[in-house]
Amino acid sequence: MPTTIDAGLPALAQAAQAWTLSRCPPEIVAQARLCILDTAGCIVAGGRTEEAALILRCEGDAAGAAATVLGTPARQPLLSTVRIHGYLGDVLELNDLIGGHASIGVVSAALSLAEVRGAPLGTMVEAVLRGIEVTHRIYSAVYPSLKRFTESGLVPVGIPSSIGAAAAASRLLDLDAERTAHAMAIAGALAGWCPAEVIFGDGGTLKPMLFGAQTGATGVTAALYAQQGMTGPLRLLESRLGYFATAATAARLQAELPPERWGLAAPRRKLHACCGYLHSAVDAAVRLRAQAPLTPHTTLEVHVPPYTADAVDKPRPPVSANDARFHLQYCLALVLCGADRIDPEHSLDHAGHLARDDVAAAMDRIHVVPDGDLTHYHQCRLLLKDAQGAVLAAQALDAPRGSPAEPLADDDVIDKFRRIAGPSLPPGRADRFIGQLMAGEDHAPAAGCIATLAT
């Protein structure tokens, strides 16, 4: 089935020019603010990890400090700060899933560029809104007909997120529609491969660089290039050699969407600190555990879509904290042994949990089944079977907590920010940031709000 193109990058850039705070539905604007809040919390929380020291050292030699690194006393040059924020905000796998993983790259780019540019808070929110919606439209064009990871080797979020970050940066640089389109095209061309092996296989500590750090910095770089007159490949998406042909079999892009179909109208946010591919099975396991426990005489059969199994069905225990966040058997074993939610400590202390006899035994009794009847990663079917293969209990789920069908309430997102960012901030700072961001004082400098999260 061929690609259908109702709009390319120029049309998408033109549409984005109309997405202003005054023209967008209030509920869409409110969700953009919550994306900033949620992502900022993930960044601050990520500063407690060993990887935080690593990325700060990697970026520490650049001169000309200009922007605040959230949750720290440090200041770094613009692009270094974007990369650090993107890395820290993704390292715990708590950042949202809107448009694939739009917020982590877009918000990281907008926070630092808004501070350096002296932009008002409202302009930063508007930039985030545009960036997320651009990312959502491109990602949604390929998602229904994605090729399996074993066919393309590509995780499809990196290129849309880089283009979306460029759209956000273009707003903060006041670029017109033509230069915005070229910024988006340049970003798509400069975007990294986002290889599936690094994301789902043995990626070491590099993975967070690909979803947020690289996409955000690439978007800012592309917008700065376009500001100076550099041009890009405007048919990068729809050409026969383009992104759509690479990632999907029947892509369809639409620039103009009714508000109810906007990405921010149906946000996907994370309750669990692990890959979104695991969330449905984790929540189903919580329910199944209430029906019947896993025993030495039973096994758990986990049916998931084939492309999901390609990514998170692992033949051996997790070998790193990042690997643990993408390990279906490990996370389900934690739930079957009593956890109701996957928290950051489950990956940060994966060695300690693997040393538990109950977790090790549970992992051995979990079997993943690629099921062609399931097509979305929100879908799963769990069967608890006895030694003869008889089904003792079953649980199917197609809407995990945090998905559009079972969304986190606004207060849940705010409470999550307090829970994950609060421990890293001086008393009262978390609530002060919430108040500044959500109050709608859009003419106030964004830098003042950002400074609240410096320590």
TrEMBL record:
Which InterPro entries does its entry note? MmgE/PrpD_sf, MmgE/PrpD_sf_1, MmgE/PrpD_sf_2, MmgE_PrpD, MmgE_PrpD_C, MmgE_PrpD_N
Residue ranges the record marks as coiled coil: none
A Pfam match = MmgE_PrpD_N
List, for all copies, the residue spans of the domain called MmgE/PrpD N-terminal. Answer: 12-251
Gene Ontology MF terms in the entry: lyase activity
Query: Where is each MmgE/PrpD C-terminal domain found?
Result: 272-433
**PANTHER family linked to this entry:** 2-METHYLCITRATE DEHYDRATASE, 2-METHYLCITRATE DEHYDRATASE-RELATED
Q: State the family it belongs to.
A: Belongs to the PrpD family.
What's the protein name?
A: MmgE/PrpD family protein
Species of the source: Aquincola agrisoli
